[in-house]
Amino acid sequence: MLEFDNYAEGFEEDDRLRSAFTRSLTLHLLHRPAISTVDRSIGVPRTLIRYWHDPHDVPDDVSDCLASWDRLRDDGFEIYTFNDTSAAAYIAERYGALQVKAFARCRHPAMRSDYLRLCFVLAEGGFYVDADDVLLGDSWKTIFENKALKLQPLCYDIILGRMISAAEIWSPGLATEDRIFYVNNNPIAAPAGHPILRRSLARATEKLLGSDPKPEIQSTTGPGNLTAALVAHARELMLVGRPFDFELLDDWGAIAETRWDLSYRGDARNWRNMKALGL
């Protein structure tokens, strides 16, 4: 049982508490049935969203990843690939001055992608995937069985400097010391208006418009931001005895595969190089 009473309001801003709650939440979901109370007649819209900042300079290997999803059109999907210009135009059309200003302060394409996916899926609903993901078989269909938000849990081992495998994350015996538990912001699948995405967008906007001239990407717009919104929302639901309106995916690896050997990973287009390049 998740001891949510041990977490005070605002705990999600503490890195250690956020990680501990995420780990407890993952184990809690092992023993909790799927969301039977969610209306399954209205699922996640069959809209696929991707992002590549410059439509005139898409590396061939990234194009191959993007093309792997094209067959979803045969299953009734609308597919959108946003770039820096179209994303700015979309946010200006659907949101207000604060969000427009926040997007303009995203100093790397990855941050702009982070922010756009929150804006779009919150407003329209749909299914976001990164441009370096390759679609595998037909297991994607499980994502559209209900209108719960779907996210992927992750765990990073600080000492080993590597990610823990997806299978290990769901093991009750997994050690927690020197490990960070969180959710990825890829994929994101949800109906329009989901409260976790609303909270996540509000938090990202506030941080982008804050006093820090170079806000850190993970905690501002990336997985740290989304994890903070998730755990705060989960605690609120449990305090009032309401069912979860989200699911943590335990089979994303059967749906898509991330390609790590892409050409852009060695240059400034890879957000992981921001610090080394002084960005």
From TrEMBL:
Domain of life: Bacteria
Pfam families: Gly_transf_sug
Positions in coiled-coil regions: none
GO MF terms held by the record: alpha-1,6-mannosyltransferase activity
InterPro entries assigned to the protein according to its UniProt record, in alphabetical order: GlycoTrfase_DXD_sugar-bd_CS, Nucleotide-diphossugar_trans, Och1-like
Gene Ontology BP term (one): protein N-linked glycosylation
Protein name in UniProt: Mannosyltransferase
